[in-house]
Amino acid sequence: MTVRGRQRGKQPGATVARGQAGGGDGWTTPATRLTLPYPTAPPLSGGPIANGSATPAVLYICVERSPDAPGLAEERAVEEGHSFAEQRALRILAEITDPYGEPDPARRTGWLRVRAMAEDGAVSVVIVRWPNAISPVSALRQGEITWFRELGVRVLFSWAPLAARKAEGW
User: Which stretches does the entry tag as region Disordered (predicted)?
Assistant: First the structure.
């Protein structure tokens, strides 16, 4: 896992592999990445938002990588997610990425981090590009969406054809 942001003695925006710059937090899957887009982002424990007006959100990315264009799908998901958030006055506190392929979100380190942020009250919104990023299995996907809804956290899809719809019923 890599973390982008301020790390002991590092410049904001520097990428540091987990295990460097002072230990781990138990999230050890190397293919999972947490990115803090703003060096001044509030703590993940649900600390106050600096401007007080933007709703705190997390951007979750789980996309299949194309051998012809590695990184392109992830790049598009990130750009789309940030544009979506900006249009809706959402402040992305973190981008969390998991490798594509595990259908059960409960077995993905990044998704568990998203759940932890929601449980801690750090975010009110989870932004996902499309429903299959949560799970291609309808029952697993719906169970996760219901779990977030019961916490009072909205799951929103950033892909334009789905952006106007609520996550319920997926």
Answer: 1-33
